[in-house]
Design goal:
The chain is α/β, with parallel strands linked by helices and about 160 residues long. It is about 35% helix and about 25% strand. The chain has 4 helices and 6 strands.
């Protein structure tokens, strides 16, 4: 649900303005129609695939540029096809960390968990010419339901 909602909204609403910002911020030799690499989990990949099949106007306009992969696939690709200035691609990531490190639990003491609940972190962001965006949202998982506890918490990942 978290990934499906986020990725659907991102594809339908954020892609056009992101592409416009990219055109204004990138070097002149940057591809104006870059590959849009979405780094996510298998669930997120299925969401992107479904969005492509649905053919909504915004998604249809970038269909040939979209590819959804796992983080490992993206890292392997960037090693064999370096593009540090993001001249031919941009990367949007969206994934859920279901095992929050114990070192972070003190930060969330104001949000006590009930028996059987756990915290999840939804990490999302975009890089690829223009300002990099990184966001992290705290969720509570009961085993059947995810509830947003606090959006836009401090991100601890420095570089992916």
């Amino acid at each position: 649900m978290i990934l499906a909602t986020h990725l659907s909204l991102w594809l339908d609403h954020d892609v056009p303005s992101l592409m416009e910002q990219r055109r204004k911020a990138c070097l002149v030799d940057a591809d104006p129609y870059p590959v849009i690499v979405i780094t996510t989990s298998p669930v997120g990949i299925a969401v992107v695939d479904e969005a492509i099949v649905r053919g909504e106007p915004v998604v249809a306009s970038v269909r040939d540029q979209l590819v959804a992969v796992t983080e490992r696939e993206y890292r392997d690709w960037t090693k064999s096809h370096p593009d540090p200035e993001h001249l031919v691609h941009l990367n949007h990531w969206s994934w859920v960390k279901t095992s929050v490190p114990a070192a972070r639990r003190d930060e969330f003491a104001a949000f006590p968990l009930a028996a059987g609940e756990s915290f999840w972190l939804h990490r999302t962001g975009t890089t690829g010419c223009g300002p990099e965006r990184r966001f992290c949202h705290l969720w509570r998982w009961s085993g059947t339901t995810a509830v947003l506890v606090r959006p836009f918490i401090a991100e601890r990942v420095r570089r992916l």
